[in-house]
Amino acid sequence: MGRLVVVSNRVPAPRDRQQPAGGLAVALRDALSEGQCLWFGWSGQQISEHEKAERDVSIDHVENVTYATIDLTHAEFDGFYQKYSNAILWPLCHYRAGLMEYNRKDREVYLDVNELFARKLLPLLKPDDLIWIHDYHLFPLGQALRDLGVTSPIGFFLHIPFPPWSLMKALPGGTKLMQNMQAYDVIGLQTEDDARNMNDGFSICGVKARAQVFPIGIDPESFAEQAKAGEDLAEVQRLGESLAGKPLIIGVDRLDYSKGLPERLKGYETFLQRYPEHRGKVVYLQIAPVSRGDVEEYRLLKQGLDEAVGRINGSYGDFDWTPVRYLTHPVPRHLLAGFYRLANVALVTPLRDGMNLVAKEYVAAQDPEDPGVLVLSHFAGAAPEMEDALLVNPHDADEIAEALHKALIMPQAERKARWALLQPDVWRVTAGSWARDFIGTLAKVKRA
Ligand code: GDG
């Protein structure tokens, strides 16, 4: 098998290269552990327009992995990342065409940055490389590499949903985007629905390409160990003591409108209204680290959440009880694992989600003898694999309220039975197996 070349918008920061922290880095750990590998992408640094001419690729070797990064100018960061990727493709792929802020200029910057990636990557490539491109920031990169004469196998994985063509065609230049996908030898999506949507789009656009399903997972073994070890951490014990015997409901999401946070709070409020017996007797901890804070839509979302939490705490709280504990900063991963294990219920209610790893992490973190209950949205990519969770429609506040009540009073025998049905899939489809399946499929490709 050839050398693995991974391309993603962001490459792990130097401090995270020994011990991967981010989702993609953790997911790729197995795949990157063998042979020589190259990881190419944006450094996370921005430069001014006049520094652009001398822009070079910086190279760093850590064990068998070469990290190659480039800086982006402020204008590139804005047009490529903030606007086209995060204010156009992200909402559209999450079925929110109404939130799209389309501007032709941003599309041009997006295409330019993809071409820049291709030009800077080209001299680093070797003939027997396997190239694996990640996510919506880089849809056209495969074609840009082909235009420069690259003939190696190139694969593409989309981490987020892909909507039906009737919606996707709202994207100006959408047909071109689909045509560019012909450059890829393997196209991976998270779920059957996503792959069907993309394949229907291909046939409508007359594009000869085929999307396949490669659901992503976590590293359940190490996460379960971390969660168990978490029991002995002072912070986890402090959280436990602060509950004073009350059950804990946990939510963990980047502060993103796809995660259904306002709807979830409405569900919790409805729960407090309809089941007064739980008032004063339960704690809901929502961890929602701010993400993409410079994009207007995300600022408005945060404002709305700040207000809703304040309102619920003001109306239902008491001098010795806060209904919602709400953090908008990240919690270190080892604590998070311990918090999940302590939590009696996890509320994972995205309006749309490619997969949702939080659902899998929560299951992995449980004590098999006394597991908690997962309340999961039908619209998470994880839902088809996790039908033994309490599945809810996140738009239906009453359904969330009923599921919360059911979860909190669920007998231990039922909790154990449900967990035992959820556990095998979380252990079977892992980050490692996902990467191996994808790379194995790509390695079998011989381009005509
Ligand atoms: C995209 C797709 C797909 C969250 N808060 C904290 C924290 N996290 C960690 C979680 C989890 C990860 O971030 C989030 O992963 P998700 O899968 O839930 O969601 P996205 O970030 O939107 O990821 C998604 C994924 O890509 C993979 O393909 O599943 O559908 O949208 O690992 O634990 N971690 C720490 N502190 C926090 O406060 N340490």
Automatic annotation (TrEMBL):
Keyword Transferase: yes
GO molecular function, one term: alpha,alpha-trehalose-phosphate synthase (UDP-forming) activity
E.C. numbers: 2.4.1.15
Alphabetically ordered keywords of this record: Glycosyltransferase, Transferase
Domain of life: Bacteria
Pathway the protein contributes to: Glycan biosynthesis; trehalose biosynthesis
A Pfam family matched in the record: Glyco_transf_20
GO biological process: trehalose biosynthetic process
Top class in the EC scheme: transferase
Keyword Transferase found: yes
Reactions catalysed according to its record: D-glucose 6-phosphate + UDP-alpha-D-glucose = alpha,alpha-trehalose 6-phosphate + UDP + H(+)
Entry-linked InterPro entries: Glyco_trans_20 (IPR001830)
Subunit-structure text: Homotetramer.
Similarity comment: Belongs to the glycosyltransferase 20 family.
Protein name stated in the entry: Trehalose-6-phosphate synthase
Gene name per UniProt: otsA
